[in-house]
Amino acid sequence: MSDRPSPRPGAADAERPAPGTWRELFAPQHRAAVAVFAGGIAVFAVNTYLTAASLPSAVADIGGQRLYAWVMTVFLITSVFSSMLVTRTLTRWGARRAYLVGFGLFGVGSLVCAVSPIMPIMLAGRAIQGTGGGLLTGLAFAVIRLALPQRLWVRAVGLTSAMWGIGNLIGPVLGGLFAQIGFWRGSFWLLVVATAIITVLALRALPARTRDDTAPTPLPISSLTLVVLATIGVSVASVVDGRRTVLALVGVAVVATLGFIFVDRRRDAGLLPRLTYTAGNPLKWIYVSIAVLAVGSTAEAFIPLFGQEIAGMGPLLAGTLGAALSWGWSSAQIASTTWAAGRRALVVRIAGPAFLAVGLATYGILQSGTSDAAIIGWFVALFIAGTGIGMAFPHIATAAMTITPDNAEAARASAGVNTVQMVANTFGSATAGLLVSIGASVGADGDPTITSARFLAFGFAALALAGVAAAVASIRPSRPAPQLSDPQLSDS
Q: How buried is residue 314: exposed, middle or buried, by Cβ count under 10 Å (0-12/13-18/19+)?
């Protein structure tokens, strides 16, 4: 790690040159590389929503109802695990081979799912798929640093984030279409074909020797184990019955998380960059901001259910309600990367979680009625919540990527963006399920669905308000990093 003082985040953002244009991002010299890393995110995102739409038909065909929830849980856990290996994969194999490994695993996993005769085999396919998917999402942030000039990073991060919105729009439609015609396996065959096409692009777009210059470091097995244990604890807690069991699993997750922080900060080369644990450095708060936005986005999984059960919406309209969050973040991130530079980029980093909090809280308040005006208010509130995610995320992620002039630590900080996002998505999905479950039990005497919707909305709104405080802390000038006297630490 460099022994130079850490940069002043506010000053660095203010002095950073204005982002390059969208035309420059898609210029011939960048177009193929952009297609590869955006395509990797796209197939991951489309798969997430496509599988959810086609899974009921799959269960009806091959059985395995009791394993229903594990189809997503296995995928998320393996994605989290492999996302933590991105920097080491890139260092060892270079960009092209790393992407080939990621696409290869994702394609093989999709193929296994497409031909699965029974649910356990599908779970194996989902595990392989998730391992490849975690690499693909993490490689996007790492390769942006390697393949593009810094002035295009904000645009590129905004594009990768927009892929999640696209996945939410077309994934359910495609999955529902294949299920409607009685060919749920077509969803996975489509992923196999799409993955093969993007793999060919990767072969052409990425040079064989494009490598990160990060020095190889030992694999932090203890840190990995504790994070995976925490993830499994929360994930399983969201799919089991019994309050005591749920509390015990949540307790395991909390203890494992605290244990991870204790262990990882004591390592010379941990899972997260050492800057994360350096007193006065803002990277920890940047990661917290990313986690808050990622958790907030997971609320959309339950929005269509609430629309159908509370307002009696049809599946299509309810699905559109759920997509309002994605529409908000997709449109806001494109707009934000166009005009938010310098001091304005700092403003949107704080305004983002505030918009998320206001939108979710308003949605919760409006659950008191189902008039046309109230339902329109739901759409508007969710759109506002989504704009908070979209306006802030590209600038927060870019702040992590430029947190230090030390290339090795900057590479780890970039990979950490994806690791934090993946873990937060998993924790957020599980936490959303817990809040909905608690709301249903508390509201048993009234309307449990409305109570569940409010628990989810107000709970995540409160978390978003905490994200505002984290965002403020992330833009404060950092204190100079202490001089390192141990040469081993300087190399790590």
A: exposed
